[in-house]
Amino acid sequence: MIAHIFADLCNGCQACVTACPTHVLDAGTESEPPVIARLDQCQTCFMCELYCPQDAIFVGPDQTQAETIDPAAIKASGLLGQMRRDHIWDAPPGDLAPLSEYWKLGPYLMGGAQIAAERYARRHALGEKE
Amino acid sequence: MRAAAIEKRQQAAFGLAEKAWAERVLETTWRTLPQLAAYYPFSKDGTGETYYPGVRGPEYMRALRHCALDLGVSVLDHHPALELLTHSDGSVAGAAGYERLLRQPWTIRAAACVVATGGCAFRSGLIGSHTNTGDGYLMAAEAGAELSGMEFSTIYTLSPAWCSTRTLPYTGARFFDAAGAELDIPPPMSDRAHHRALAKAMLEESVFADLSEAPEALKPILRRIQPATIAPFERRGVRLFEDRFEVKLFGEGTIRGTGGLRIIDEDCQTNVRGLFAAGDAATRELVVGASSGGGSPNSAWALTSGQLGGAAAARLARSQGRRTGARALGQGRSGLRPTRATHAVDERAAIDAVKDEMLSYDKAFWKRRGSLQTTQARLDEVWAELAQYRGAQGLEQVAARETAALVATARWSASAALARTETRGLHVRADAPDMSPDGARRLLVGGLDTVWTRFETLASITLLAEEAA
Fold this sequence. Notes:
The complex is a heterodimer of chains A (about 130) and B (about 475).
Chain A lengths: L1 E4 L9 H5 L5 E2 L8 E2 L10 H4 L6 E3 L11 H7 L4 H6 L17 H25 L1
Antiparallel strand pairs in A: 1-4, 2-3
Chain B lengths: L1 H11 L6 H14 L24 H14 L10 E6 L5 E8 L4 E6 L3 E3 L19 H8 L4 E2 L7 E5 L13 E4 L14 H13 L2 E4 L11 H4 L1 H8 L10 E7 L8 E2 L13 E3 L7 H4 L7 H25 L8 E2 L16 H13 L1 H5 L3 H21 L6 H24 L23 E4 L5 E4 L2 H11 L1
Parallel strand pairs in B: 4-11
Antiparallel strand pairs in B: 1-2, 1-12, 2-3, 5-10, 5-13, 6-9, 7-8, 8-9, 13-14
Helix pairs in contact in B: 1-2, 2-9, 4-13, 10-12, 10-13, 12-13
């Protein structure tokens, strides 16, 4: 769930308020940071982080309960903005880097399934022998 | 290749799909998806060709939005629709809803509406599904629409117990119980056996996954393929491919399931005049029959049905206009217009009842007449209370309508599951494990206070075709 909005990093653009599909956030007054108003509606989808141009939001990993974080530790961890960097979200139009590996999803999905199928067959062949 | 893909789908559709629809969807998708290239960074597929079979959610949503804006579309963010308006002749006259950021109601008169509200995952916690409550089904049903294929709504995906992610890294997983003994789980491509075995184990105790045997080449690049799958591990200090971690199954309902609003013609029109359905809000049986549309079939269907429904709606707007002089009435009931004096209703308890009845592994994987009847009776009671007493004002209306939609959708799913007394595709009855020779018919469901079911007959299909002609 969304855990923290860093007021010192936030520029008050409210982009996260619009991007959040579940209306977790209320817009801040003037250029104040948004307010986490309905945490129970947070589904840990990371969209607020993705749409924050300031890397001022941290979403915790647990979708089942509210999480308290140590803001200084999170800043030091280097995790702020990780989702945007991993997506290469700000790539300029025409740059194909963001999805350059995406086509491998299918082959690796099937590859994993193949590994599981072979392991299962092997185990059951052994079982029959015994 | 396309013909082979269609043939393969037809065989897996258990007699409920239509080849012409499969062809139409593939043709439209291959023709129009590349048009998004100015907005979505399609990359190559390893052989030098552009990769079209899959799209990544956040980038794709942003691309569609930019494309729509460039075409001059007005996008109203955070304006959930609460109900449809109809004319006295039953045709759709527009919609009304609530603008939640500015806290004010809205009403739009329109010559036609396209319901594109997604499916319903019964609040399972599945990533992205919180607003997939079936609210579009409810609005449409209140306006007189029928649903189809709602029995095909039991399907799950595996994720870490603390956060729903995408499924890519789990297909090679080994599974263990809390004591560290390995579980004998059939592999993922055995389909229902895989999830049934996991569900059975999870009913006993916690189940842990070990991904160390995942494809070696996947490990260093998973972050580049599915970043949101990495974050819940990285931020919890769990090493995805090294540590054992607890897993659970998240229900997908009609998202990767198949049911939705009944489609009666090639414009994706519902049986309500001027009301069209697109994406997961519509039944996808036309393309995938009784099987899951999860993945590319659903994406292709969304792209196609949206264009067909949208074009038909635009034609209607051109030919008849908005008829703003004609009277239009809001059709919303529970949450907006209860039948009796409003009093407090425990919405949390209503949602918990839906989750328990629709998502509990024992009830979902081992459906029997008796348990389905119990589900029906319990949810009928919940519905009756909501319909009679739940009235809300302002922002609270949004949640009230979502709750009503979750309960209504659960009742349609349970009733359809009870009426289809056989096992077919996604629909598995523990007390009727075989496919019935006369079961290759679509099952329609609808109704609010009283839920009805009816198998589609050839006569009713012909009649609709004549009406449409």
